[in-house]
Design goal:
The protein is an alpha+beta fold. Helices cover about 30% and strands about 40% of the residues.
Length: about 375
């Protein structure tokens, strides 16, 4: 009887033990699965919004690089171009001949007027002698005052005629000098607008010469912004991929009528690796009084109606967080940071990178600093 009762008890004990083992194994499996699920949560990096009352603002103002010395040269007399002495891109020195007109007619005119001057001077000498003789005769009573006046008038006429001829000679000589077009300063021939054999009239542009070693940037900006700069101020410019330094020369006294901006002339430092015609940018730093929260620019994504959105994390378990979308208004940006206005609070965790990999409602975990969220 005793053995009969012992067997069921042993069987019951073994069954209870088996059930306990099954329960413990199921619990351990559940814990392992939960731990594995937590480990499989996508790690994300986060930032905390900072509340501010002001924010730095940079405005970019644009202008052109221009030579400080540039001249468009033209022939004063008209004529036919006889010789071209330089080509585009040639370096020239002050006074160097660039082109020459055919001056044969001018030389002939000069000889003609010089001959008339010589003849007039001879006639004038005779007129002076005649005037002196008439005055002497008048003193001796052998001539009348009328004869004296007539001799004086002839002398005055010839003197005036001589002055007119000398003026003609100087004008012809000036035209002869101007028939040789010369460089007004040391520089480079930027453009040639005439060729040998061309017939040019007075004022026809022939060459453009500029000084490439003396460059300036002419930056247009609002009058209020330009007032912040004075002659002698050092400024930084951006031309292409080059960062340059320059010195403010002056603010032009009136607004550009087309753009309604005031021009700031900035002399570029010598040796600047730029050429005339390139676009220059000047970045003007100001501080705006505006309250809001500052976040990295990478934390923002586009939303509807011109707004932007950030992804905020809310706790959802021991290590897990659930993503919530919050719409904000982008106010200003500077150096990779953005000032936003919206329902944000200090201490919030905002996803600051890889926002394209997650969606609102998704469970994620915060990456350890320097860990798998990088």
């Amino acid at each position: 009887m005793t053995d009969q009762w012992k067997r069921p008890r042993v069987l019951v004990a073994l069954a209870v033990l088996a059930v306990a083992l099954i329960i413990m194994r199921a619990w351990a499996s559940t814990q392992t699965s939960a731990d594995a699920n937590d480990q499989r949560l996508l790690p994300v990096s986060t930032s905390t919004p900072h509340a501010v009352d002001s924010f730095p603002q940079l405005t970019r103002h644009t202008g052109l690089v221009e030579p400080r010395r540039a001249s468009t040269l033209a022939f004063e007399p008209e004529g036919r171009v006889a010789r071209i002495e330089v080509r585009e891109g040639d370096a020239v020195t002050q006074g160097q001949v660039l082109a020459v007109l055919d001056d044969r007619r001018l030389r002939a005119s000069l000889k003609e007027v010089e001959g008339e001057i010589a003849a007039t001077r001879a006639s004038l000498d005779l007129a002076r002698q005649e005037e002196e003789r008439q005055r002497n005769l008048r003193r001796d009573g052998a001539s009348t005052q009328r004869d004296v006046d007539r001799a004086e008038a002839e002398r005055r006429r010839l003197e005036g005629q001589l002055q007119g001829l000398e003026g003609r000679r100087d004008r012809v000589q000036a035209n002869l000098d101007d028939a040789r077009l010369r460089a007004p300063f040391d520089g480079v021939v930027a453009r040639r607008m005439v060729d040998q054999g061309d017939l040019v009239t007075t004022g026809t542009p022939a060459f453009r010469v500029l000084d490439p070693e003396s460059l300036e940037a002419r930056i247009g900006m609002p009058a209020g912004t330009a007032a912040a700069y004075s002659s002698g101020d050092r400024v930084s410019l951006r031309v292409g991929d080059q960062s340059l330094e320059g010195t403010v020369i002056e603010r032009l006294p009136e607004l550009d009528p087309a753009r309604r901006t005031r021009t700031l002339r900035v002399a570029l430092d010598a040796g600047a690796p730029v050429v005339p015609g390139q676009i220059a940018h000047l970045r003007h730093a100001t501080e705006v009084s505006q309250s809001g929260h500052v976040l990295p620019e990478s934390a923002l994504t586009r939303a509807r109606s011109g707004l932007w959105a950030v992804l905020v994390l809310e706790p959802d378990g021991e290590e897990a967080h659930r993503i919530r979308r919050v719409n904000v208004e982008w106010l200003y940006s500077h150096d990779g940071r953005v000032l936003v206005r919206g329902p944000l609070e200090a201490g919030m965790d905002v996803i600051d990178g890889g926002t394209h990999r997650v969606v609102p409602g998704q469970r994620v975990r915060i990456a350890e600093e320097g860990g798998d969220g990088d």
